[in-house]
């Protein structure tokens, strides 16, 4: 495998071997009562050096394997994940796809000055009010 990382904006399900160098911008747990009330999902927003973002999800059975090594604001080299359509009510990035961690997914903490940005893009309430199309926004505290 080469040392070159793929850009987030190029990720599609039509290729299997992706290698991304990303920052964890946001990390949160979510229960999905439609599947099983006892099962958790761990979601992340990941960002590359070009400030492109993609959502990643870790299913209940794999959370313990990955959660201890993932921290908001840290940089990682990630490989061996599945790419799936980014659909549903939990869509928090504009990317058409999301990453789904598998048992074989590799997550290695790295140091790089290439991704210094926080990843947040702020929009005023006036701008939101003026939008005529159906836009989705993640609003936090």
Automatic annotation (TrEMBL):
Gene3D superfamilies per the UniProt record, alphabetical: Nucleic acid-binding proteins (2.40.50.140)
UniProt-listed InterPro entries: NA-bd_OB-fold, RFA1B/D_OB_1st
Domain Replication protein A 70 kDa DNA-binding subunit B/D first OB fold: 6-108
Source organism superkingdom: Eukaryota
Protein name: Replication protein A 70 kDa DNA-binding subunit B/D first OB fold domain-containing protein
Species the sequence originates in: Arachis hypogaea
């Amino acid at each position: 495998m080469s040392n070159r990382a793929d850009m987030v904006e190029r990720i599609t399900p039509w290729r299997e071997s992706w290698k991304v160098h990303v920052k964890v911008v946001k990390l949160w747990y979510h229960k999905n009562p439609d599947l099983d009330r006892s099962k958790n999902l761990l979601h992340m927003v990941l960002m590359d050096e070009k400030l492109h973002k993609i959502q990643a999800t870790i299913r209940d059975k794999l959370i313990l394997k990955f959660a201890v090594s993932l921290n908001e604001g840290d940089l990682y080299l990630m490989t061996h994940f599945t790419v799936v359509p980014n659909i549903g009510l939990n869509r928090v990035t504009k990317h058409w796809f999301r990453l789904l961690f598998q048992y074989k997914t590799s997550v290695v903490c790295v140091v790089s000055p290439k991704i210094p940005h926080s990843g947040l893009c702020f929009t005023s309430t006036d701008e939101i009010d003026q939008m005529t199309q159906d836009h989705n926004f993640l609003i936090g505290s």
